[in-house]
Specification:
The chain is an alpha/beta fold. The chain has two domains: 10-97 and 285-302, NAD(P)-binding Rossmann-like Domain (Rossmann fold, 3-Layer(aba) Sandwich); 100-277, NAD(P)-binding Rossmann-like Domain (Rossmann fold, 3-Layer(aba) Sandwich). It is built from nine helices and twelve strands. The longest helix has 19 residues, at 98-116. The protein starts with 9 loop residues before the first strand and ends in a 15-residue tail after the last helix. The model has no long low-confidence stretch (mean pLDDT 96). It binds NADPH dihydro-nicotinamide-adenine-dinucleotide phosphate (NDP) and oxalic acid. Oxalic acid is lined by residues 74-76, 95, 285.
Length: 317
């Protein structure tokens, strides 16, 4: 239990994957006094002070006149900021919780190592019964670039640093990155890409980053580079990925996110020999650890302090 100061506070939950029950249990554990309500049976709407949501219907949060804070179940808030009818003046908090961060570091390390050691080529050799004594460079000679150097990007860099990769990051504002090279803004993008053999996208989806993984970007990378997109489908131009793979500009791509999710059954990505598809599972918010973070933020708000991890509505993340 985190606190006993959530007495009588009502939190409305709208989750996906029918995880409502799991979320209720997690909040019950973090703060038994919190009055959790389901989206389907919210009760008196004026009693709802907090909303914990994933992809709520546009305009739906306006139903709660006394809302003090909107918590996103995910780290990304594009599902909320696309709503022009979001209640004004109510802070939006994105998800930052240790297990979500850990999961993303695992995913990034898995796929970076896989490309670094060219596992796809080794698997191909096995299928062909070829004894392939493939020699790959060691990590200090492999240049990995992380686009988006926030909570998840920095944690992924920490995980990769253990192996000694030659790291660089790219962000909107300048960053101090003692473990590698730091680039920022549109001026820094081409130099960042020019030295990046394995590109990891961990950007938020905003008007500035939409469609950023496109033909021009791939052309700025060394030939035969690899792409790992664990951020949002809206970042990638799907036909440009296919073209870059066809031309050899990209050697392979691991895509966790797509313009349309679930990825349609007849989509060409499913069977492409050099694309790895995962089903938006790079990392998932874990109820027990996330509920603790949300309750801690509610306690802050009730104490008159600003919540942590609020979204800058102007920047869009
Ligand atoms: P943060 O807000 O902590 O970090 C965002 C980073 O992106 C910051 O470094 C920011 O720069 C940078 N950035 C934003 N806009 C630009 C821009 N225009 N140009 C360059 N850099 C930019 O986010 P998180 O690390 O917590 O999460 C990142 C994203 O990962 C989420 O928004 C979500 O979409 C995705 N995600 C995907 C999951 C999955 O399973 N596939 C799971 C969880 C998250 P600066 O530091 O200068 O502000
Ligand atoms: C997130 C996600 O944003 O799961 O957390 O995509």
């Amino acid at each position: 239990m985190v606190s006993s100061t959530c007495e009588l506070m009502a939190l409305i939950i709208k989750s996906d994957f029918a995880r409502d029950v799991i979320w209720r249990e997690a909040f019950q554990f973090a703060s038994p006094e919190l009055d959790c309500r389901s989206w389907q049976a919210p009760g008196d709407l004026s009693e709802i002070e907090y909303a914990f949501v994933w992809k709520p219907e546009k305009g739906s949060l306006r139903r709660f006149p006394n809302l003090k804070c909107i918590f996103s179940i995910g780290a990304g808030v594009d599902h909320l900021l696309g709503d022009v009818d979001l209640p004004e003046g109510v802070p939006v908090v994105r998800m930052v919780e240790p297990e979500l961060t850990r999961g993303m570091s695992e995913y990034v390390a898995l796929h970076v190592l896989r490309y670094h050691r060219d596992l796809p080529a080794l698997q191909q050799s096995q299928r062909a019964r070829q004894w392939n004594e493939l020699i790959t460079p060691t990590a200090p000679h492999r240049r990995v670039g992380i686009m988006g150097f926030g909570v998840l990007g920095q944690a992924a860099a920490e995980a990769l640093r253990v192996f000694g990769f030659d790291l660089a990051c790219w962000s909107r504002t300048a960053k101090d990155f003692p473990g590698g090279e730091s680039f920022h803004g549109s001026d820094g993008l081409v130099s960042f890409l020019a030295r990046t053999e394995i590109l990891v996208c961990l950007l938020p989806l905003t008007p500035e980053t939409e469609g950023i993984l496109n033909r021009d970007l791939f052309a700025s990378m060394p030939r035969g580079a690899w792409l790992i997109n664990a951020a949002r489908g809206g970042h990638q131009v799907e036909e440009d990925i296919l073209e870059a793979l066809q031309s050899g500009q990209l050697a392979g791509a691991t895509l966790d996110v797509f313009e349309t999710e679930p990825l349609p059954k007849d989509h060409v990505f499913w069977s492409h020999p050099r694309i790895t598809v995962t089903a938006h599972i790079a990392s998932v918010t874990q109820p027990r650890s996330a509920a603790v973070e949300v309750v801690a933020n509610i306690v802050r708000i009730e104490a008159g302090e600003p919540p942590l991890n609020t979204v800058d509505m102007g920047a869009g993340y």
